[in-house]
Specification:
Layout (H helix, E strand, L loop, with lengths): L4 E6 L7 H14 L4 E6 L1 H4 L9 H14 L7 E5 L5 H10 L4 H5 L2 H10 L5 H16 L4 E3 L5 H18 L10 E3 L34 H10 L16 H14 L3 H8 L4 H27 L2 H30 L6
Parallel strand pairs: 1-2, 2-3, 4-5
Bound molecules: adenosine-5'-triphosphate (ATP) and magnesium ion.
């Protein structure tokens, strides 16, 4: 039986943090042997907000190296850079022309990020979900492992698929509808400085997140300074204590314990006892990833060869879908 296909990506907008890892990449790694996987560094998405052209290429390579360091295995998975496969931009344009404007204006991420940009909102930010639909649909992906914040974009992708197939499929399925794959725990890791906001690469405060490459002393400082509450006894799931729920969840996932075991261990604890425990756990959990990352990033030749192979494999599949889509839309393809 052929394996189902998985597609996902992270944008090189900054350093990977625990939210990206626990919400998305951990999910990619755990499931990878069951699926035929494509993981891209979505650099075209990174320019939907103001970016630094001097660091974009290096940031892109760093993220690819972190995929490998986190355990993406090339035996099961293909790693590539989105902008290396031009079919992504081309399919996004074709899908733009069948996507109603008001679908995009309703997207939560657009509304939140547009507010942050003030007067400087580019069309690309509004169009982000159509490019994301193109990323997924080019590979006929069955499953898209993402954090909770991306669920709405996958639902939009499904709506675009239905609309396209209905208008242009002539009874055939030209584009395939994907399903989100979202973990129960870690799907929405919250900011260290505000337990009601998700942890994000683009948060201006570095204290709001733990980056996968943060050295031990910085992890210690961030956890020492993170927001807590004055209540003794740490419990999951109290809506009045979002920071408590978030920090316990981080401890649970990085220590590899069950939720019940953590709830029992921390039921009587105060923050003074919990914070050093979380610090130690985070440092130990990230150490092997950091060691592996440094090995890979110091071997640029290897990294580039991985991305070259990835580009070739990805483009072969993507170009077939693009051709099929253009045929369905009625383009002249014979010359
Ligand atoms: P940005 O702030 O630039 O949007 P980001 O931190 O949201 O960056 P993305 O590159 O947009 O990261 O998302 C990559 C993947 O990480 C997606 O699958 C997304 O759902 C997931 N993700 C992002 N933030 C979190 C979070 N706080 N908790 C769980 N998953 C997350
Ligand atoms: Mg994001």
């Amino acid at each position: 039986m052929t394996k189902q296909r998985v597609l996902s990506g992270v944008q090189p907008t900054g350093n990977l943090h625990l939210g990206n890892y626990l919400g998305a990449i951990r999910n990619w790694v755990e499931g990878q042997s069951q699926y035929d996987n494509f993981f891209c560094v979505v650099d075209l998405h990174a320019i939907t907000v103001p970016h630094n052209p001097k660091t974009l290429a290096a940031d892109t390579l760093n993220i690819a190296a972190l995929y490998l360091a986190c355990g993406i295995d090339l035996e099961h998975s293909t790693i590539f850079v989105q902008s290396h496969v031009s079919a992504h931009s081309e399919l996004a344009w074709l899908l733009n022309c069948i996507t109603p404007l008001n679908w995009l204006q309703d997207m939560i991420q657009f509304k939140e990020k547009a507010v942050k940009q003030g007067q400087n909102v580019g069309v690309g930010l509004l169009d982000y979900p159509v490019l994301m639909a193109a990323d997924i649909l080019l590979y006929n992906a069955d499953k898209v492992p993402v954090g909770e914040d991306q669920k709405q974009h996958i639902e939009l992708t499904r709506d675009i698929v239905d609309r396209f197939n209905h208008q242009f499929g002539q009874g055939q399925v030209v584009l395939k509808s994907p399903d989100p794959l979202i973990l129960a725990a870690g799907a929405r890791v919250m900011s260290l400085t505000d337990g009601t906001k998700k942890m994000s690469k683009s948060d201006p405060s570095d204290l709001s997140r733990i980056n996968l490459l943060d050295p031990p002393d910085l992890i210690q400082t961030k956890i020492k300074k993170c927001k807590t509450d004055p209540v003794k006894g740490l419990i999951f799931g109290d809506p009045a204590r979002p920071e408590c729920n978030n920090l316990l969840t981080l401890y649970q996932l990085m220590s590899g314990q069950t939720k019940e075991a953590v709830a029992a261990e921390c039921a009587e604890m105060g923050w003074g006892q919990f914070k050093p425990l979380l610090t130690e756990t985070a440092i130990a959990h990230l150490k092997p990833i950091q060691d592996k990352y440094h090995e890979i990033i110091n071997d640029q030749g290897y990294l580039e060869s991985v991305l070259r192979d990835g580009k070739e494999k990805a483009a072969a599949i993507a170009n077939q879908t693009l051709l099929k889509t253009k045929q369905a839309l009625g383009f002249s393809l014979s010359l």
